[in-house]
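Review this today:
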Amino acid sequence: MSEHRMHMAEFCKYQFPIHTEGVAWSGRLRYLQNCESASIVHQPLQHHAHYYDLLVAEGPEQNYIAVRNDWADLEEKVAFYRQNPAAARRVARNSARTFRDRYLTPAAEACYWRRMIREWAAVQAWKPERYVDVMQADGSVWKKQRGVDWEVFAAVDPHYPLDFPGYEGSREKEKEDGGKKDGGGKKGGKKGAES
């Protein structure tokens, strides 16, 4: 079975990659649309993603090849586009221009998620507290930020350690574990020596 597996980037070598859905939403269409290929997508799709309304099945802005849900017209559609390579190239270029170069860029994705989170926050019944009071040894109280800004979280910089409660790599977690990255447990010794 493993000899038939392909990395998503390998799909870009094909003129007509096929998007299929299973029993759950399939996230692979977004990756197929990052190729300059004429993706074949069955209709109707059972699940929905935020960019599916941008799929155009026909006309000058067509950006994918629609086939029936039972795939009965697949052979006919592929034959048409193989006999009309200019039409296939137009679909592929429209797809890349619409998705890869505009709506599925990292910046566009971050914009979508940021707005979704802000809109969600606007309708929730409670407002999270951004800061928590931390008592210092000298009796003063400092404000400590809870969590991290969206931009820091979404674009993780490996040189900037995230530091918030519950995050696996946080400095706070290291402190709780005695400053050891191995979880603070004893190393070496005889088997069963730890309690």
